Amino acid sequence: MVCAWAEAGDGRYRDAVPGPSPRRVLVTRRLPSGGLDPLAEAGHDIVQRPDDQPFTHGELVRAASDADAIISVLTDRIDRAVIAGAPKLRVVANVAVGYDNIDLEAAATAGVAVCNTPGVLDDTTADLAFALILAASRLLGQGERDLRGGRWNGWAVDQYLGQDVHGATLGVVGYGRIGESPVTWTISTPCCGDPMSSASTSPWTTGPVVSSTAPGSAS
Prior knowledge:
The chain has about 220 residues and is of the alpha/beta class. The chain folds into 2 domains: about 1-115, NAD(P)-binding Rossmann-like Domain (Rossmann fold, 3-Layer(aba) Sandwich); about 120-140 and about 165-215, no CATH class. Helix content is about 25%, strand content about 15%. The protein has a 6-stranded mixed beta sheet, covered by helices on one side. Strands 7-8-9 form a 3-stranded mixed beta sheet, with no helix packed on it. The radius of gyration is 24 Å and the shape is elongated.
């Protein structure tokens, strides 16, 4: 988790590091098992809904009013109303790479630290991107829908052929953390049959990068 320390408007920093006394932590949505264990073991008071229903904005303002910390997700709007209504608030930890749901200016004015989790889903997102490539190329969605709809009557040679992925060129538009993920390059490494080749472009590179195996061979 990465935090940006926000200076309070009067030139002082709020104490963003929990002291020895328990703090009240508002958790807006259910987290994966074990995610809150460090807070619970430290004796902090964890406040969350048992049914995992998202807070409305009004409910969020009221729930945050006595919180020392908020653990939020991208669908939570942590705006000036939430921050101004929480005088004890010291940190907002966003369970996401992005943080455009948080009013950074309001947080800076109040001296509240804002944290995010960059990089944790880079390879996961690349996994899903390649899953979609395979599904679209091999007509997996059409086949699944026909099977469930009772429209599949048996095997045929020319059925659901789709297009080959091996030997194709993978285009990566935006060569950022996900684009240059090891997963992206792994799919172009030979394992069975012809490898894919990869071509990428990004505003932050001088031109397209083309490789048939791994990043080290790009030119």
